[in-house]
Amino acid sequence: MPLAMHMANELLNLPTAMVTLALAAVAVGIASAIAARKIDPHKLPLMGVIGAFVFAGQMINFTLPGMPGTSGHLGGGVLLAILLGPSAGIVVMTAVLIVQCLLFQDGGLLALGCNIINMGVIPCVLGGWLYQAMLGRRDSSPAWRQYLSAWVACVVALTAGAAMVPIETAFGGRLMIPVRDFSAVMVSVHLVIGLIEGLITFAVLAYVRQVRPDVLGLADATDAAARSPLSGKAFAFSLLLTAVMLAGVVSWFASTHPDGLEWAYQQHKYAVPAELPVKPATPAIVAVDDWQSRWALLSDYGKRPAPLGQTPPCQTTDAQAAAQWGQPDGWRSMAGIAGTFATLLLLFAVTRLLRRRKPAADA
Fold first, then answer.
1. What is the DSSP string of 279-347?
2. Rounded to an integer, what distance in angstroms lies between the CA atom of residue 323 and that of residue 300?
């Protein structure tokens, strides 16, 4: 059972899941209303391609330095907040998480509220605020200050979101280990992930700063075409092409190591079985898990082990095969590209709705 920031159903009880789903729905509703009123119209078309880029980026696990045998992946919430604003960032991350949950069974359906809060609301709001507070005026801040602000925001916001996982799990009485032990692993691992995510965010911002400074508020959008090497369409296409390459090819070379928590349990850091860090699932949790496993089109970003609508059989993983790295996988490529365009299409529909609400809000 995955124990990263993409929480599984088993980590929650039903009341906690319902409360967090309701809180997430309220947060996304408020964010949508703010985005419809405040987002720059020139950025609306970018929501889809930036969301597709974040989806693809999250497919690439990287081995964590100083923690051999464990891995992490991009969160992307702070990057979304910087490029689109916190409110639009929350909307985009919600779309990414919905696609991952429903199509690929990446994150539990009952845990969707927690995942939206931990990976969307907290990183976008906290990270976006911290970035802006450190940056000051965008049009007069030097490049080094922008990059430093983004890096610090990534580390702080990602770690804060990760720290919520033990709290949410303990709140429902599901945890079989002390909260402080769970928190220590989550915080330490995601501090390292946050440092690496800061470097990735730095690279993306450096590219955007060179080719479309208006997206970062460094130039007037009305004369961006005259000042920028790339047109708006060319910039969007470059992001989409990068997303397709990440999901379709680079994902072959992603780290096969388990995430930080799975690694900690496998190394017997705590006196509980590696596969069962929480209490046995209730019938409601089991039923939702079964529904997800039957209807996820490409479970775990690969070929379904059973026809759609049937519960897949239990599979045993060959440790040697799992450790292999750099193997082309057509099913994974297809899943990654399908998810990239599913995210793009979902956000295209969302931006259409935001466009319809914007005139009324402006009036």
1. PPPPHHHHHHHHHHHHH-TTGGGS--SS-TTSPPPP-PPPHHHHH--S---HHHHHHHHHHHHHHHHHH
2. 16
Q: Does residue 244 surpass a pLDDT of 90?
A: yes
For the chain, what are the domain ranges?
9-313+331-362
Q: Retrieve residue 178's tokens.
A: 């002390």
Query: Would you say 5 and 101 are in contact if contact means Cβ atoms under 8 Å apart?
Result: no
Element (H, E) at 73: strand 71-73
Report the sign of the C-alpha dihedral through residues 16, 22, 27, 28, in that order.
positive
The CATH number of the domain covering residues in 9-313+331-362: 1.10.1760.20
* Nearest-5° Cα angle at 138, 135 to 141: 65
The tokens describing 351, both together, are 């931006």
Which of 29-43, 225-239, 303-317 has the largest mean confidence?
A: 29-43
229 DSSP 8-state letter: S
- What does the pLDDT look like over 211-240, one tens digit per residue? 998 888 876 555 554 467 788 889 999 999
Contacts 24+ apart (CB under 8 A), 267-275: 267/69, 269/185, 270/177, 270/181, 272/176, 272/177, 275/1
Q: Has residue 265 got a pLDDT over 70?
A: no
Quote the pTM value: 0.91
DSSP state for residue 117 in the 8-state scheme: I
